[in-house]
């Protein structure tokens, strides 16, 4: 399955895909796995409020009364952060540790500059993916599969569009369902 993803000039590709109802969200909804939220959703993580670029909350943990207005008082199951070249390593790792201390089950760090996705299964247990790999998370998102190379090609197209000064762009994130 693949489809277009519209993005804002701010470059928040995955968050835009999540909120605009594109492939990641479609996959989660099609399999009734829970809810996907973008960078307009704030979560209470320990004593701090955090806004992951993308967050996933499993269906079993969605509040019975519906999505809260304002700050979510529960942590997401998955937090995704897109790393910029100006992010400091120490701050990024501190945020990962904070996510886990606050109850997040998995964290993905996406580095467009280095074309690497680091999956933190725990603060000291990671999987590093390159463009030759598929992004999967059987424990959090059973069956979800996205080729890392396609993710970064999409990010490169977003960057190119932004450099040309266009206010909006269209990118494609091909996804395939696991066996």
Can I get a quick summary?
The chain is an alpha+beta fold. The chain has helices spanning 13-19, 23-30, 89-101, 148-163; strands spanning 4-7, 34-37, 43-45, 48-50, 54-58, 78-82, 106-111, 116-122, 125-129, 134-137, 141-147, 169-172.
Radius of gyration of CA atoms, rounded to a whole number? 15 Å
The name of the CATH topology is tt1808, chain A
Q: Quick one: biggest sheet? A: 6 strands, mixed
In the CATH hierarchy, the architecture is Alpha-Beta Complex
Q: Give the terminus-to-terminus CA distance.
A: 14 Å
User: How many β-strand runs?
Assistant: 12
**CATH domain class:** Alpha Beta
CATH superfamily: tt1808, chain A
Explain the overall architecture:
There is one protein chain. With 179 residues, the protein is α+β, with helices and mostly antiparallel strands. It has a single domain (4-172), classed as tt1808, chain A (Alpha-Beta Complex), CATH 3.90.1570.10. 25% of the residues lie in helices and 32% in strands. The chain is built from four helices and twelve strands; from the N terminus they run βααβββββαβββββαβ. It has helices at residues 13-19, 23-30, 89-101, 148-163; strands at 4-7, 34-37, 43-45, 48-50, 54-58, 78-82, 106-111, 116-122, 125-129, 134-137, 141-147, 169-172. The strands form four sheets. The protein has a six-stranded mixed β-sheet, with helices on both faces. Strands 1-12 form a two-stranded antiparallel ribbon. Strand 3 (43-45) and strand 4 form a beta hairpin.
